[in-house]
Design goal:
Blueprint lengths: L3 H8 L7 E8 L2 E8 L15 E2 L5 H14 L19 E3 L9 E3 L6 H5 L17 H5 L14 H9 L15 H14 L3 H13 L19 E4 L5 E5 L19 E2 L1 H12 L3 E2 L2 E2 L3 H7 L6 H5 L2 H4 L3 E2 L4 E2 L13 E5 L3 E6 L4 E7 L10 H12 L1
Helix pairs in contact: 1-12, 2-6, 2-7
Length: 382
């Protein structure tokens, strides 16, 4: 069987990602491999502590923060979000998903905290990006690849969201991405603390996630990898350099995809979840909240309708849940998510396994690329 080193070398260099960091952990046993370089120049070797823009691997972290507020009694899953997000007090829904944005009806019921966590609030990406109500998500909300310096500030962003009709009634359908950004604003308003400060105080500092945040301090920029996407020629093209958008505080701290992190930092978060919300004897989350996060909440029909993103998986809070074994993971119950910048992070509670793969080449679409699938097969079989 191929080693982790073999897999990474096969998929890095040339017209692929310049480098990668991969980690597989079972309890105290940790296998880590850092391969290639942090940029196309090849002057900076990839290292275990290289810092990556983790994109949507942010989502489980932000969902955990929402559940901290639930544990605190500040919010409840059944609460209408209008208490903290008055912009969503009277949402409207397009008459049918294909209707024009001005052909709307009132929402049948309020949007709840649980709707945001399960991605069934009515806002987000469907399988068909051509629907009229999807366009404003890109033009007004700047949904898509993370761009922290080009998204409106949270209050302005929420005002824009209030003018966009929902695609489905609350609770009816799973729609991708936007709900995590709304969760970020909810956390800040319900706690009275900006999202970056809340995450630092309640999660990153207790877990020792010293390299995780929404920006990279000047003294650590030498460890931030360059970020690429595949250009028209098939070769990687630079999207963001180490001194680019993540070198400054973000205008909009994106709960959907704004964090930078390292393999070991995300491992610390994973171990907290696997331990039922506890780290070093300190409880950060209740076991019940961890179970809610890592349990599938979708109906079979909702799973089947969302194949563009979750390929028949279910959805917990902030991440997918493998419902049945697949060719890339043979134990159901795996929880986590992938990031469009070329990242993936998962836990499997039944086996106590954590898998983390960090690359700096943007995914070409919502389907996991070959490097991820080969990595998952290795982790499942090793």
């Amino acid at each position: 069987m191929s080693t982790l080193h073999d897999i990474l070398r096969q998929h890095t260099g040339g017209q692929a990602a310049p480098g990668a960091v991969a980690l597989v952990a079972r309890g105290d046993r940790v296998e880590v491999e850092a391969t290639g370089s942090a940029d196309l120049d090849g002057t900076s070797p990839m290292a275990r502590d290289s810092i990556f823009r983790i994109a949507s691997a942010t989502k489980p972290v932000v969902a955990a923060a929402v559940m901290m507020l639930v544990d605190d009694g500040r919010v409840a899953l059944e609460d209408p979000v209008r208490k903290w997000l008055p912009e969503l007090a009277s949402p409207v829904v397009v008459r049918t998903p294909a209707s024009p944005v001005d052909d709307v009806v009132p929402a049948a019921r309020p949007i709840t905290v649980a709707d945001l966590l399960t991605f069934r609030a009515g806002y987000g990406f469907p399988s068909d990006f051509s629907l009229p109500a999807v366009a404003p998500l890109f033009s007004e909300l700047k949904q898509g690849p993370p761009q922290p310096q080009h998204v409106p500030a949270p209050d302005e962003w929420m005002a824009a969201l209030s003018r966009i009709p929902m695609l489905h009634q609350p609770g009816d359908a799973w729609l991708y991405n936007t709900c995590s950004d709304i969760q970020g604003v909810l956390i800040a308003r319900a706690s009275g603390v900006p999202l970056p400060e809340f995450l630092a105080e309640r999660l990153f500092e207790p877990l020792g996630m010293v390299d995780t945040g929404f920006e990279v301090p000047a003294g650590k920029l030498d460890r931030l990898v360059a970020y690429y996407r595949t250009g028209a020629s098939g070769a990687p093209e630079l999207v963001d350099a180490p001194d680019g958008q993540w070198a400054l505080p973000p205008i909009f701290p994106s709960g959907a995809g704004g964090l930078v992190s390292t393999a070991d930092d995300w491992l610390a978060f994973a171990r907290m979840l696997l331990a039922g919300g506890t780290v070093a004897g300190r409880r950060l989350l209740s076991p019940a909240s961890v179970r809610q996060m890592t349990t599938d909440h979708l109906t079979p029909a909702q799973r089947d309708a969302s194949t563009l993103f979750i390929e028949g998986q279910g959805w917990g809070y902030g991440g997918s849940v493998d419902v049945t074994p697949t060719d890339v993971w043979n134990v159901p119950g795996r929880y986590g998510w992938i990031g469009g910048t070329g990242t993936a992070a998962h836990i499997t509670p039944s086996t106590g396994t954590t898998t983390i793969l960090l690359t700096q080449l943007e995914m070409a679409g919502p389907t996991a690329p070959a490097i991820m699938r080969d990595f998952w097969r290795h982790a499942a079989g090793s």
